[in-house]
Design brief:
By secondary structure, this protein is mostly helical. The chain is 40% helix and 0% strand. The chain has three helices and no strands. The protein starts with 28 loop residues before the first helix and ends with a helix.
């Protein structure tokens, strides 16, 4: 029986490298926030794995979040 051989092909210099952690899947906030709320409320460990990840948001959402942060009563 023949053995399989692994061949490696480097990226050509003229093609951009795929970043494994680059955002690549669009998701609606409406679909995301119930899941995040439950994971946060129930203290799911996997949520902590992503605490340092950055999210790309639209400029208008960023402005709303920033305004909300400034208006929110402090604890």
């Amino acid at each position: 029986m023949a053995t399989a051989r692994l061949r490696l092909f480097p990226y050509p210099d003229d093609e951009p490298h795929h970043e494994p952690h680059a955002p690549s899947v669009p998701i609606r906030l409406m679909d995301l926030y119930p899941l995040l709320a439950q994971a946060y409320r129930d203290n799911y460990v996997w949520l902590r794995d992503f605490e340092d990840d950055e999210l790309l948001v639209s400029n208008d959402l960023y402005e709303v979040i920033r305004a909300f942060t400034n208006c929110r009563p402090s604890a």
